[in-house]
Write a structure and sequence with these properties.
The chain is α/β, with parallel strands linked by helices. It has 18 helices and 34 strands.
């Protein structure tokens, strides 16, 4: 018989009893209701200005309504306060956290380490979740977060299975992992393209999604590929849920606060069914997809899509066309039942051609007939991107909370309702019941009266004598009962907290500005501080670099990669600690290296409160007075595989590859090679 130590037993019980929690997006109240009605355990939402989706979001007033609705159905609410803040915004951000917590918000998803540190210090009872925008993808990063009381980490989408297991085996922090929705082509939190090109920062919730535009992939000016070369497919982890569960993931997250309510309902429904072990249909593709991928879960992944927007599901092709003077008729073959007001996307030779809405649709001789102004051809491929009948069915789906109520109606006694909420017993009294002369109150009448609730499905047991009660009094009694149930389910169950006035800080004096980044040792060293950022990290090269800096009276630094697996960390640690070279920290994993450090662009130090957390010199990737030295993007997929159909055994990478934007701007492709390759888009030399 196998022996178990305590740790083994705990892990075994954890995996047996754990059910993956489903965290769904809510861009508005309708989407929130869709999430709750279709099986979400938790929802996440944002308020205007202070969330990383460029949408209106909730106001404090509508946030209160959202929290109460979710709590009726035992669904937790997480508020995203997940942008980087200026010094003059931190007070408002902290005030928002306090106000939302006092409204009953269960947890806060935060990116800015300054805000995290303030919430942890001033309000230790407030639950903090580290945003995926922090780029945490390994155990070392998680250990850094533990110091700030973070309860849950939303891992970067680039985190592979091996690192998830490593985190679970060595930390008690909760793990949240994205499973569905848009997949950013750049490493989480380290995309600066929108900021650098348009002045609209993705880290400030203003991303212009330049990755969804066409690009050309070139080799020293020669075009090798063109199209939507940076447009990622959509994340889909349905086939990986058992692996996520067994690895120790606590919550699976659905992306999509900017999506329409149907998307939220449909995706939540599918994943809820999957978690319960029920059958999953293909309607998920109708919610939104650009093609599906498991991302980087099994490696550096096939993630690039041919398309920039929703492609739906293929349902047939054009079999016959009848052109008229103003309107044309097309006849489509399909085994699927199609409904009026549905929307279709037409493809020709694999390329997206047009979109049409079928305002009128009928079936003739086995073919669907649609009237349109579009001119189509035989064999054009037809994809369904919006099924109106399904959307209407989803909108009409309503969830009600099951409540068991016992009612007692006795002559000359107050009518009484008894129920239990969260193990607490309640008793509500109404008017005194009088003896019935003609029309006694019946159980059916009472049940019908209590079957009038927006939120509750009542299982009513009644003990009734020969009593009469006017309908107006009975209605008032019912309303009082429901009001008490609503209050019991939605009341804030923690102590309220007060606002704190912050002291003014100014850490601008600690900005690290006098530096030069070199990619090879032989470059000319012009600044006082020289940062060596090689393609391949070699111990002997680092020693030569240090020696050259010493001869030229320059201070050397080694640029740390922002994405590193466990074997990469140990390899780099050995080089750094043997040479004692100061480092540029671009992700939290490098903070425990025992050498002098400067916080690099990847740490996203945006305000004095974040700088104070470390009290180290720091670079600014964004913001006023910034130095544009950060890469425009960090890519964890391999452009060689995506665009050149290459493989690792015969990798063609060399200096000279680049992407050209529609504006004509050229972005050079740069590689860093450790146990895996990470690519960067940077300015031309």
């Amino acid at each position: 018989m196998q022996n178990f130590n305590v740790e083994n037993l705990i892990d075994l019980c954890y995996n047996i009893n754990m059910r993956l929690k489903i965290l769904s997006p809510a861009g508005d109240m309708e989407s929130l209701k869709m999430a709750v009605n279709n099986g979400a355990d938790e929802v996440y939402l944002g308020v205007k200005d202070f969330n990383a989706r460029n949408i209106e979001g909730f106001s404090l007033e509508s946030l209160k309504q959202a929290v109460e609705f979710a709590h009726i159905f035992d669904v937790k609410v997480h508020l995203t306060v997940n942008i980087l803040f200026r010094d003059d915004e931190i007070q408002s951000a902290l005030d928002l956290v306090v106000d939302a917590y006092n409204l009953g918000v269960d947890a806060f998803i935060i990116q800015d380490i300054g805000l995290i540190s303030l919430v942890h210090k001033l309000y230790p009872d407030i639950e903090i979740h580290a945003s995926t925008q922090m780029g945490i993808h390994n155990l070392e990063g998680v250990k850094f977060l533990e110091k700030f009381g973070v309860k849950r980490v939303v891992l970067a989408r680039e985190t592979p299975l091996s690192e998830i297991k490593r985190i679970r085996d060595n930390s008690s922090i909760e793990i949240e992992y994205f499973v569905q929705g848009a997949l950013c082509v750049s490493f989480s939190g380290n995309c600066y393209m929108s900021e650098y090109i348009t002045g609209n920062s993705g880290n400030r919730g203003k991303c212009k999604q330049l990755c969804r535009l066409p690009y050309e992939f070139m080799d020293k000016g020669k075009i090798l590929a063109k199209g939507y070369l940076l447009s990622a497919k959509d994340f889909n982890m349905l086939s990986k849920l058992d692996e996520l569960k067994n690895a120790g993931v606590d919550a699976i997250k659905i992306e999509g606060r900017a999506r329409r309510p149907y998307y939220v309902g449909e995706v939540t429904r599918v994943y809820a069914n999957a978690v319960r072990g029920e059958n999953v249909d293909n309607n998920l593709q109708l919610a939104f997809n650009r093609g599906y991928t498991a991302g980087y879960f099994d490696g550096n992944g096939d993630i690039i899509s041919k398309y920039q927007s929703h492609i739906g599901i293929n349902i047939g092709e054009v079999k016959y066309v009848k052109n008229g003077k103003k309107f044309n008729e097309i006849f489509i073959s399909s085994n699927r039942i199609l409904s009026p007001k549905s929307v279709f996307k037409i493809f020709r030779d694999g390329e997206e051609l047009t979109t049409l809405t079928a305002y009128d649709i009928s079936k003739e001789k086995g073919l669907y007939r649609i009237t349109t102004t579009q001119k189509l051809k035989l064999k054009d491929s037809v994809n369904l991107i919006l099924d109106n009948a399904l959307e209407e069915e989803m909108k009409n789906k309503i969830l009600r909370k099951n409540i068991k109520i016992n009612v007692f109606a006795m002559e000359n006694q107050k009518i009484t309702a008894k129920f239990t909420i969260n193990n607490k017993k309640y008793e509500i009294f109404g008017p005194v019941c009088s003896e019935a002369k003609n029309s006694p109150l019946t159980i059916d009448e009472l049940k019908n009266n209590f079957n009038k609730s927006e939120y509750f499905n009542v299982d009513l047991n009644a003990t009734i004598e020969n009593v009469f009660m006017p309908k107006s009094m009975l209605n008032e009694f019912r309303r009082n009962v429901f009001d008490k149930i609503y209050s019991a389910l939605t009341s804030v169950n923690h102590n309220l907290v007060k606002h704190t006035k912050l002291e003014n800080l100014d850490y601008n004096h600690n900005i690290f500005e006098d530096f030069q980044i070199v990619e090879n040792i032989d470059e000319e060293y012009k600044s006082n501080n020289i940062i060596y950022s090689p393609e391949v990290y070699e111990f002997n090269d680092v020693k030569k670099f240090i020696q050259k800096c010493k001869e030229l009276n320059k201070r050397p630094f080694l640029d740390m990669i922002n994405f590193a697996l466990s074997e990469d960390i140990e390899y780099l640690r050995e080089i750094v600690e043997k040479t004692n070279i100061p480092i540029i920290v671009n992700n939290a994993w490098a903070l425990d290296f025992n050498v002098d450090k400067v916080l690099g662009w990847g740490m996203n130090i945006y305000n004095s409160y974040s700088a104070k957390c470390f009290d180290l010199p720091y670079m600014k990737a964004e913001g006023e007075g910034k130095n544009i030295n950060a890469p425009y993007m960090t890519l964890r997929h391999c452009p060689m595989k995506e665009h050149l159909r290459a493989n690792c055994s015969a990798c063609p990478y060399k200096d000279g590859y680049s992407y050209r934007c529609q504006s004509g701007k050229i972005l050079r492709l740069k590689r860093k090679k450790l146990s895996t390759c990470t690519f960067y888009l940077v300015n031309e030399k």
